[in-house]
Design brief:
mainly alpha, two-stranded antiparallel ribbon, 9 helices, 10 strands, 55% helix, 10% strand, membrane, protein-cysteine S-palmitoyltransferase activity, S-acyltransferase, transferase, EC 2.3.1.225
Length: 336
C-alpha cells in the first residue's frame, strides 16, 4: 500500500466591493486587492466594539469639563490672587498685565472650544460599487469601513470612541473629547501654543506676586552678600534664606497659598504641553501623523523630512516654500 499526494487547484470567486466586478482568485484569500479599481477587500473584518462606546463618550466629556473648570480656575484664581498685588505696585503695570491676561485667556479658551467641538475631518464621499462609475485605479488601497458603511482611504482611520472615520487622524485626545485630524489639527497646535504661553505667563505672575506678598528677608540677604567671598558661606546664606521663607510660609495668607498652587500647576502643565507640542511639530516635520508613525515602526518607510511640511501645515505663503530649496542649496554649497 502506498500514499499519493496530489494538489487540487480550485478557483474562488469573489465580488469586489469597490467596483462590483466578479473576481476569480487562484486560491482563497481573506484579503485581496482588486486589479481594476485597486480596492482592498477583507472577508474577515474586525468590527470595533460598540458596547463601551457610551462610556467612552461620557469619560471624554468629563475630561472636557474638568479641563475647562481647571482653566477657569487658573484664570479667575490668578485674577483674584495676583492682580491686587500688581495694581498696588503701579496702575500702568496693572492695566498692561490685565490686557495681557485677558488676551491669553480668550485665545486659550477659544482655541480649546474650537478644537473640542469642530469636526476632526470628514472623509471625501466617493462613488463605489458600480463598474461603469468606478474607473481604473480610482479606489487604489481603499478599504471598506463596515461600521460607517463607506469607503476608507489610506489616510483615514476609524475612531472607536467617536464612532466615525476621520481623515488624516492623528490621535484621539480624551481631554478635548474629540479626535485630532485634518479638520482641527491646526486648531489643536494653536491651542497648545496658546496654553503654553498662558501657563508660562501665569507662573511668572505668581512668582512676581509671591515676592511682594512674602515678608522681606533683608537679614538673610545681607548675610549672604556679606559672606559672598566664600562658597561655603554662600551656601549657608542661601540655606538661611530658604529656611526663613519656609518659616514664614506658616504665616502665609490664603492668597499666597493660591498663588503657590497656581505656580506649581502652571509649571507642570507647561512642561507637559511643551513635550506634546514638540512631538506634534516633529511628526509634522516628517510629514506623518501619530498613527502613521506607529504603523511605520519597524519598517523602512520614512516620510520626506522638510520644513516645507511645517510651512504647508500652517498655511504659509507659497513664496516662502519656493525659496526653501534655494536656501538649502546655498547652505550645502557653503559647507562644501
Amino acid at each position: 500500500q502506498g500514499s499519493f499526494v496530489t494538489t487540487i487547484n480550485e478557483d474562488y470567486e469573489s465580488i469586489c466591493w469597490g467596483c462590483g466586478l466578479n473576481l476569480v482568485l487562484p486560491s482563497y484569500a481573506p484579503v485581496f486587492k482588486c486589479g481594476w479599481c485597486g480596492a482592498i477587500t477583507n472577508h474577515n473584518p474586525v468590527r470595533p466594539e460598540t458596547r463601551s462606546f457610551g462610556l467612552r463618550r461620557i469619560r471624554d466629556r468629563c475630561f472636557v469639563v474638568i479641563l475647562a473648570v481647571f482653566m477657569l480656575f487658573v484664570i479667575c484664581g490668578g485674577i483674584w490672587a495676583a492682580y491686587p498685588v500688581v495694581f498696588s505696585i503701579s496702575l500702568a503695570c496693572g492695566i498692561l498685565h490685565s490686557v495681557t491676561a485677558v488676551s491669553l485667556a480668550i485665545s486659550t479658551l477659544t482655541t480649546f472650544m474650537v478644537v473640542a467641538f469642530k469636526c476632526a475631518g470628514k472623509p471625501i464621499d466617493i462613488v463605489y460599487g458600480t463598474h461603469p462609475g468606478v474607473g481604473n485605479g480610482a479606489l487604489n488601497n481603499y478599504t471598506f469601513c463596515h461600521t460607517c458603511s463607506k469607503p476608507k482611504s489610506p489616510r483615514t482611520h476609524h475612531c472607536r470612541t467617536c464612532g466615525m472615520c476621520v481623515l488624516d487622524m492623528d490621535h484621539h485626545c480624551p481631554f478635548i473629547g474629540n479626535c485630532v485630524g485634518a479638520g482641527n489639527h491646526k486648531n489643536f497646535v494653536a491651542f497648545l501654543i496658546s496654553a503654553i504661553i498662558s501657563t508660562i505667563y501665569a507662573s511668572v505672575m505668581c512668582v512676581y506676586s509671591l515676592i511682594h506678598i512674602l515678608p522681606s528677608l533683608e537679614n538673610g540677604a545681607a548675610y549672604a552678600s556679606s559672606h559672598a567671598s566664600n562658597s561655603v558661606s554662600i551656601l549657608r546664606g542661601v540655606k538661611s534664606i530658604v529656611l526663613a521663607y519656609l518659616s514664614n510660609a506658616v504665616f502665609i495668607s490664603v492668597r499666597g497659598l493660591v498663588l503657590l498652587y497656581l505656580f506649581v500647576a502652571s509649571v507642570s502643565v507647561a512642561i507637559g504641553l511643551s513635550v506634546l507640542l514638540w512631538q506634534q511639530l516633529s511628526y509634522i516635520y516628517e510629514g506623518k501623523t501619530y498613527l502613521n508613525h506607529l504603523s511605520s515602526q519597524g519598517s523602512e518607510e520614512d516620510g520626506e523630512k522638510s520644513f516645507g511640511n511645517l510651512l504647508t501645515f500652517f498655511g504659509c505663503p507659497l513664496l516662502i516654500e519656493r525659496h526653501l530649496p534655494t536656501i538649502r542649496n546655498l547652505r550645502k554649497r557653503h559647507k562644501t
